[in-house]
From TrEMBL:
It comes from the Bacteria. Gene3D superfamilies: 3.40.50.2020. SMART domains: Pribosyltran_N (SM01400). GO terms for molecular function: ribose phosphate diphosphokinase activity. Residues 7-120 form the Ribose-phosphate pyrophosphokinase N-terminal domain. This is ribose-phosphate diphosphokinase.
Length: 313
């Protein structure tokens, strides 16, 4: 195709964006941010985007500046006459607020969808949404990628016998069953109840883990409370080993310490959210890049090719 393809990144997403551009066979476009003394800022493209297919890359994890940067860049690209604007959002922040679980609360995921469309996006590309129905919040195409494409290959290379897939909570049962179905393994589930957000009251295990090699599957790890409690419980019930896979490494609070002190042998994550690289904190943590997956799908989107074969789960 003759249409020019341009890549731009939010400031917090530069490392992943550079990798995506590299695997695509492109480079990041030039953009600068003008800042006022009160910390207000405005992005400015330093090259023409007129008539181009523009990919704007950035995850929307807190602080809200990361979201605002992406929206301002999108608005700037629209006003500069870009032909197509795809927001590439490896981690779609605020997605846990996908419904009203009590009166007088927002549905933040829907609000973000509205803002992205209003800013001028013609397409959104993301990975492992916290809830699949968020795709329906958009009135533009959404490419929902699955990190299973990355993780399945890694699991196979472990070549473990007596492998069993586990979900750390009931909400992840569908995801765990999908992995288990593809790998031909059993599934066990953890059932938990919370006192409040990020605080578990109790947890029970459904299924047999004795003498099994367990891999816990989740879409994100935040405080690591649920994941480490599940790992400790599974190990206590007689599992041979316990590993965990989580797409998005939110890793807030004292999550690194919880992981270090838990029964987990390993936590495997993607680079959808940049980590603060402190060597002693990355103990037990392995990072697999999602850049090749995004680059591959972005190339197919640009060439108007089907992307259905690029999904595993």
């Amino acid at each position: 195709m003759n249409q020019k393809v341009l890549f731009f990144s939010t400031r917090s997403g530069l490392k992943l964006s550079e990798k995506i551009a590299y695997y695509y066979g492109n480079i990041l476009g030039k953009i600068r941010f003008l800042e006022f003394s009160d910390r207000e800022y405005t992005p400015c493209f330093e090259q023409s985007v007129r008539g181009s297919r523009v990919f704007l890359i950035g995850s929307t994890f807190p602080p809200v500046d990361n979201l605002m940067e992406l929206l301002l860049m999108c608005d700037a690209a629209r006003r500069a006459s870009a032909h197509n604007i795809t927001l590439v959002v490896p981690y779609f922040g605020w997605a846990r607020q996908d419904h009203k679980d009590q009166p007088r609360t927002p549905i933040a995921a829907k609000l973000l969808a509205n803002l992205m469309v209003a800013s001028g996006a013609t397409r959104v590309m993301t990975m492992d949404l916290h809830a699949d129905q968020i795709q329906g919040f958009f009135d533009i195409p959404v490419d929902h990628l699955y990190a299973s494409r990355i993780f399945i290959d890694y699991i196979k290379k472990l070549n473990m016998d007596q492998l069993t897939i586990a979900s750390p909570d009931m909400g992840g049962a569908k995801r765990a069953r999908s992995y288990a179905g593809y790998l031909g393994t059993d599934v066990v589930l953890c059932y938990k109840e919370r006192k409040k957000a990020n605080e578990i009251e109790f947890m029970n295990l459904i299924g047999n883990v004795k003498e099994k090699n367990i891999i816990l599957i989740d879409d994100m790890v935040d405080t690591a409370g649920t994941l480490t409690e599940a790992a400790n419980l599974i190990k206590k019930k007689g599992a041979k080993s316990v590993r965990a896979i989580a797409t998005h490494p939110v890793l807030s609070g004292n999550s690194y310490e919880k992981i270090r002190n838990s029964s987990l042998e390993e936590l495997v994550i993607t680079d959808s959210i940049p980590l603060k690289i402190i060597k002693n904190k990355l103990y037990k943590i392995k990072i697999l890049s999602c850049a090749p997956l995004f680059a591959e799908v972005m190339k197919s989107v640009h060439n108007d090719e089907s992307i259905s074969k690029k999904f595993i789960i």
